[in-house]
Amino acid sequence: MNTLENRSIKDIITESLKHAISYQDYRNLVKQLVVEESTTGDEKTEALANYTMLNDRRMKRWDKTLKISEGIKERVADFSGNVTWLVITESWCGDAAHVIPVLNKIAELSQNIDLKLVIRDENEDLMDQFLTNGGRAIAKVIMIDNATGNVLNTYGPRPTLATKLVNDYKEEHGVLTPEFKEDLQVWYNTNKGQNAMSDLLEMLSGL
């Protein structure tokens, strides 16, 4: 049996991709969890189940309302690479519920982008290779070159402007309060995925 020490990042990614799912399968999973009043992840609590229900509504709304400009469509169409966006997520994660529908909308525009998702608590070895400031923050996007299997870039857990809001608030107050978390949701709703789209285009253009 391989230990983490003698498994390469490529090995870990390859193993995770074997049981990664499509966006539609992920949406179906979340919908079923809502019916079951449950959640993904090792911890099953009423609070997390409620977040899963809320996130199902958020993703449903974004699936219907996200707008992609003609300029973005043209830039994605010009992308000549061949990549997989492997996303580490959980159904209860609010940031993921706002970001992943954007990833899907962009990926749908190009045959050269394959969007796959895995559950964090089922892929701890993978998650621990892509920590954010030492923490298992999600959603985390790993951009993989399909020809070589190499990791080209990573993204997340939040869009750049949201990350700045979070970091500035933590620096001033130490912790994120419930009030700030509500404000962050307002930011997501107001921004309508535009910051995430810009970030993703920058990531693609950097290849």
Biggest sheet descriptor: 4 strands, mixed
Quote the distance from N terminus to C terminus.
36 Å
Coarse shape: globular
Strand line-up across the major sheet: 2-1-3-4
Order of helices and strands: HHHHEHEHEEHHH
Strand content: 5-15%
What does this structure look like?
The structure is a single chain. This protein has a four-stranded mixed sheet, with helices on both faces. The chain has helices at residues 9-18, 23-36, 46-65, 70-77, 94-107, 124-127, 160-173, 178-191, 194-205; strands spanning 83-89, 113-119, 140-145, 151-155. The model has no long low-confidence stretch (mean pLDDT 95). α3 (46-65) runs parallel beside α5 (94-107). The longest helix is centred in the first third of the chain and has 20 residues, at 46-65. The protein is globular, with a radius of gyration of 17 Å. It contains nine helices and four strands, in the order ααααβαβαββααα. Helices cover 53% and strands 12% of the residues. With 207 residues, it is an alpha+beta fold.
Gist?
This protein is of the alpha+beta class and 207 residues long. 53% of the residues lie in helices and 12% in strands.
Q: What attributes characterize this protein structure?
A:
single chain; 207 residues; alpha+beta; four-stranded mixed β-sheet; 9 helices; 4 strands; 53% helix; globular
Question: Helices and strands in order, then pairings?
Answer:
Elements: H1 9-18, H2 23-36, H3 46-65, H4 70-77, E1 83-89, H5 94-107, E2 113-119, H6 124-127, E3 140-145, E4 151-155, H7 160-173, H8 178-191, H9 194-205
Parallel strand pairs: 1-2
Antiparallel strand pairs: 1-3, 3-4
